[in-house]
Amino acid sequence: MKDLSRLMLTFAQVVKTGSFTGAAQALSVSKSVVSKQIAALEAELDIALFYRNARKLQLTEAGERLYPHCQSLDRELHRALAAVKEVKEEVIGKLSVTLPASMVIAGFGESLRLFQQQNPDVDLHINVSGQQVDVIDQGIDLALRVGQLKDSELICKKLTECHYLVCASPAYLAEKGDITEPEQLTRHNCLIYTGGAFGTRWPFRHSDGKRFSVKVTGNLHSNEPRFLVDALLAGQGVMFGPSLLFNRFIEQGQMAPLLADFSVQDVGFYGVYPKGAMQAKKARLLLDFIIEHCQKL
């Protein structure tokens, strides 16, 4: 079967405009294309749809019976196109986001909540995970990620700079002493995040760019960064993590950044999404909202 729906839509335009020429103008094609499509439709149905003469077209009985169905097809097509346009332009419906727990602590959870509050017709689904979920498989519209990203078919937009820090509270440092060399961490109680890539091996680099790691130990291990941050603020130990996690606490004087000269290279904070995801206005608005939040950090 040929592209029957297209042929039927062309037939509807011929009847509606009263001529092949009028249909060609309405469809932005040549008159010969319209003529060939009508001939193809008649061949497919094995029946004539028009009586033709030099002055006008006249529908046959078969054409008269077919035309209402072609009109319905034309109306449904326009309804379908309108529905797709609504998805692109209206800020309504489901929007799925994933981000690591550390970024919730950094304030991005509040940013997402404010976005939903300002756009109440958006049904916001938030997946908080320390693991990188499969964006395509899980139907994610936008993933927020820290670190070096693997090559993929996803679109990656860098939202802001980010690097890794070692932090401790002023109270902890006052009691245990300052930390000026990464190797000194082996003598300190380190708060171990078990949900990420580093665990008990914290990466650093020398001024010449050479990388190395220090194996740390501690009496508190958790896959929930909020739990570790609370312990850090309480003076229970030293913690390693992305700068976005610590920035606001540092600004408030509740934490002190350590070993800045040895920090690993900037890794960035990214918005990651499938091709075509940002064609929906609601997704574009959310990404812009998050970028604005990043500028305040």
Automatic annotation (TrEMBL):
<dbReference type="Pfam" id="PF03466">
    <property type="entry name" value="LysR_substrate"/>
</dbReference>
<dbReference type="InterPro" id="IPR058163">
    <property type="entry name" value="LysR-type_TF_proteobact-type"/>
</dbReference>
<dbReference type="InterPro" id="IPR000847">
    <property type="entry name" value="LysR_HTH_N"/>
</dbReference>
<dbReference type="InterPro" id="IPR005119">
    <property type="entry name" value="LysR_subst-bd"/>
</dbReference>
<dbReference type="InterPro" id="IPR036390">
    <property type="entry name" value="WH_DNA-bd_sf"/>
</dbReference>
<feature type="domain" description="HTH lysR-type">
    <location>
        <begin position="1"/>
        <end position="60"/>
    </location>
</feature>
<dbReference type="InterPro" id="IPR036388">
    <property type="entry name" value="WH-like_DNA-bd_sf"/>
</dbReference>
<keyword id="KW-0805">Transcription regulation</keyword>
<dbReference type="Pfam" id="PF00126">
    <property type="entry name" value="HTH_1"/>
</dbReference>
<keyword id="KW-0804">Transcription</keyword>
<dbReference type="GO" id="GO:0003700">
    <property type="term" value="F:DNA-binding transcription factor activity"/>
</dbReference>
<keyword id="KW-0238">DNA-binding</keyword>
<comment type="similarity">
    <text>Belongs to the LysR transcriptional regulatory family.</text>
</comment>
<dbReference type="GO" id="GO:0006351">
    <property type="term" value="P:DNA-templated transcription"/>
</dbReference>
<protein>
    <submittedName>
        <fullName>LysR family transcriptional regulator</fullName>
    </submittedName>
</protein>
<dbReference type="GO" id="GO:0043565">
    <property type="term" value="F:sequence-specific DNA binding"/>
</dbReference>
